[in-house]
Specification:
By secondary structure, the protein is an alpha/beta fold. The protein contains nine helices and nine strands. Strand 7 and strand 8 form a beta hairpin. Keywords: 4Fe-4S, Iron, Iron-sulfur, Metal-binding, S-adenosyl-L-methionine.
């Protein structure tokens, strides 16, 4: 598809595979053994400039844990100077004081994952004792500073109190709370090969992900569908390439034309929650075509 018919409005910038947590369901297989990849600060600056020239309005810095990348403040400020809105998706356990200043100075939005209202249950998902306490405290700090914040609850374990986690976020004052099931990617796949049918169907439609090694994919979950690499070609050339058209055709063949299933709101800032099912934790992605026929009661299913 030609770039003019499919403008690139949003990009995930996955700046690192390093993370201080080892969540069982991590789609990116991030861990303390991860690295920042091959993309240098200059490479990311160039990509951000290319995105601005392509008319991209929003980027989300993601990981791994993006706050563990030493250049995150500079990257945020560069995107801000380029006129691009910034969101940072963080587990909010590792926020240095400098970053809070950068967040407020540059009008950054935040998004985070939250697994339970009980510390023990949350920490079992993240495999890090004390992670619930740190995340919850930084949620409160972000709200106190007036930083826009979204929360996402992923149903990982049946016993994790995911419904209560969503309620806890609402009670704290988080204005947008979404939910999703574990997706069969990365560690969440438990060894299964990634499949297009476990994507939402909106991949590559005005959005893409750029990964730590420079590769471009239709979304952060669809990293097995490589479109190109910014080390080798300009992003605009990748976006309008025949490979891009082939990837989109493959997604369309599985999900149909004009896929209706929403991207889970914890992944995509431009997709706010829609009624009647928010805040909720569902067993599958929300489908607006079916929402009018479904009760507005959250459902949680075991994932294994």
């Amino acid at each position: 598809m030609h770039a003019t018919l499919n403008p690139l409005a949003f990009a995930w910038l996955e700046i690192t595979g390093l993370c201080n947590l080892t969540c069982d369901h991590c789609y990116a297989d991030s861990s303390p053994q991860g690295t920042h990849g091959t993309m240098t600060l200059a490479d990311w600056y160039r990509v951000i400039d290319e995105l601005a020239n392509m008319g991209t309005k929003d980027v989300q810095f993601i990981g791994g844990e993006p706050t563990m990348h030493p250049d995150l403040p500079e990257l945020i400020r560069h995107a801000h100077r380029a006129g691009i809105e910034v969101e940072v998706f963080s587990n909010l356990t590792h926020v240095q004081e400098e970053l809070w200043t950068t967040f407020t100075d540059c009008g950054v939005k935040l998004a985070t994952s939250y697994y339970s209202d009980e510390a023990t249950d949350h920490d079992q998902v993240t495999r890090a004792r004390g992670s619930h306490k740190r995340t919850r405290a930084n949620i409160e700090r972000a709200l106190d500073l007036g930083i826009p914040l979204r929360g996402g609850v992923v149903a990982v374990r049946q016993e994790q109190r995911a419904r209560q986690a969503a309620k806890d976020l609402v009670d704290l004052g988080v204005p947008e709370v979404g939910g999703d099931r574990t997706r069969a990617f990365g560690r969440g796949s438990r060894g299964a090969a990634p499949a297009i049918d476990d994507l939402c169907g909106h991949c590559a439609q005005q959005k893409c992900a750029i990964l730590p090694d420079g590769s471009v994919s239709p979304c952060v979950l669809g990293r097995f569908l490589t479109i190109g690499n910014v080390h080798e070609r300009a992003l605009a050339d990748i976006w309008g390439s025949t490979r891009m058209a082939a990837v989109m055709a493959g997604i369309k063949a599985v999900h149909g034309a004009g896929a209706q299933r929403c991207t889970p709101p914890q992944f995509l800032p431009m997709c706010g929650p829609c009624g009647p099912c928010v805040p909720s934790v569902r067993t599958r992605p929300c489908d607006p075509k079916l929402a009018v026929d479904e009760p507005d009661v959250a459902t949680i299913a075991a994932t294994g």
